[in-house]
Amino acid sequence: MAHKIPLLPVNTLELLAYNLFGSSRQILPLIDAKMQEVYAALYSSHLEQLISPQNINPADFLKKISEPVIIVGDGLESYREIIESSRIDFVPALPHQNIPLASTLISIALRNSIPDYNFDQISELEPFYLRKSQAEIAKEKNRENK
To answer: CB of 123 within 8 A of CB of 99?
Structure first.
């Protein structure tokens, strides 16, 4: 903020999808969320959001897929059996595409216009979490049990 550098917030699922911009298939970023869940979304080959980001059981998310996809992220390796048994038409991304890349962030910044520095906007930004932490879940359960 002291140098008045603008901030460009980007969702990690969207960042992974950008690694495959222009693919011939829809793009399915899958991140292993542990506890038999994934963070997932679905994007068109030109990065239009088709299914919004969510924290979900992988089998339940895969039921929403009807078109051929390319899967990016570590979720494929973690849930390969579930994905293969779902019978969706998929191909895996290349290994180097399965991680968020700084070069992809630059592409996003260049594709969108870099926002002007805006202190008020930056100070109001908050992380976008799809799932509460285990500590938050336990705290809520304790409140409910009292």
So the answer is: no
